Amino acid sequence: MASIPTPEHVDPDCIFCKIVARELPAFVLDEDERTLAFMDINPASRGHALVMPRAHTQDLLTIGPEDLQAAVQSAQRLAARMTDRLRCDGVNLLNCCGAPAWQTVFHFHIHVIPRYKDDPARDPLRLPWIPAPGNMDDIKAVAEELNA
Ligand code: 5GP
Ligand code: ZN
User: Fold this and answer.
1) Cβ of 38: how many Cβ atoms within 10 Å?
2) Domains defined along the chain, listed by start
3) pTM
4) Pocket residues for ligand 1 (CB within 6 Å)?
């Protein structure tokens, strides 16, 4: 039996907390003690799903290690199921941390996005950046800033 988050782990204004509490409907795919996986209602590709912790936490910077581990394991299960049942050719995991990084729902979640080769009807996705070689001095400077 999946655990119910205690009141301090619920944000009454959060739509994903309402999905956990079954106050809002969702197509649920997987659940365990710590997580719930469900379909995204604005799918980027056919089968696009989300995995979230049951307990409310804002983002990647605030989630605890046990919930993060459980969410990643749920995402792995889902990726395997998508590969098996949907016959997708690949899977992207995406987490948006902060509004500038495209986060719109501030209850941590991982997008699990099945990918289909040469199939724009099921998969219209393109890389959001144009890969190009970086300036080595800039890359070194950033690495030094991160390592300082
Ligand atoms: P974010 O932009 O925060 O990374 O992702 C939020 C995701 O939640 C979006 O892909 C959006 O389509 C999805 N979403 C927003 N509201 C709902 C909802 O009420 N139900 C479901 N199933 N997904 C939602
Ligand atoms: Zn929440």
Assistant:
1) 20
2) 7-147 (3.30.428.10)
3) 0.95
4) 15, 26, 38-42, 50, 96, 102-105
